[in-house]
Amino acid sequence: MNKNLLMRKLKNEELDRLTTEEFKEAEKIPVVILLDNIRSMNNVGSAFRTSDAFLIEKIFLCGITAKPPHRDINKTALGATDTVAWEHADSTAEIVSELKRSGYRVLAVEQAEQSTSLYDFVPKPSGKYCFIFGNEVFGVSQEVVDLADEVLEIPQFGSKHSFNISVTMGMVLWDYMTKCVLNK
To answer: Which residue segments constitute the domains of the chain, with CATH numbers given?
Structure first.
């Protein structure tokens, strides 16, 4: 450690975070998240918490994806179910169609033929985006992949076939933020 450089960990009250009311009134980035049949309530809670951190417009909880209030969602959401707008729908395909009609570019995050590497993904700062994250075992359903405008894939180099959804979501949203929001 550099002895000339002293670093003090910031206290929560020094982080200048938005209140729940301020968050609800704040301008959101033009991104929605769609969870396609997510089994784990901890993953759902993590999606809320990550969406709060990045000022996401809304989360769509589709199919079997659990919805708040539930203690297992709250355990990882840490209050983000009170800040992030959300909607439950039985049909992922119907929500995708609705979002496309509303001008969103729909991107399934999946391993597929003709996918675009996240590294090569070039979002338009003026665009509206929907990122779809799929079931922990089966991924984004083929029906939904077929409806997507594009499929994004995160390069992987080890022996496992996928990342956890919360890790994937963090990588995709951070990538989007660095390309469209932080570099303005």
So the answer is: 20-154+162-181 (3.40.1280.10)
